[in-house]
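Translate sequence into structure tokens.
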Amino acid sequence: MRTIAASAHALGFVLGGIANTVDPDVVIVSGSVVKAGPQWWDALRSGFVASALPLIRPTPLIEGELGGSAPLIGAAVAAERSMFLSSVRDPLGAPPLH
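Result follows.
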């Protein structure tokens, strides 16, 4: 369990750093790992608080609704956007977006 807590703390630390930059209203954590239990969430929050600035620390960390399907759904959306953007032509002749 120590490894899981250490990895959750590290993830929370990184999320705190990112939150310092983007100032989100909420941080949504998804994927199958969010089901690891209260020790995982406690370690995640501890890491977040360790790196977040004082005004960012109260930002809620919540479980996403997509669960273990989140990576697959995200990949499908990214693939769809990529296919769409590669077909978009700029009327002024700029190369396609990638």
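Note: The mean pLDDT is 87.
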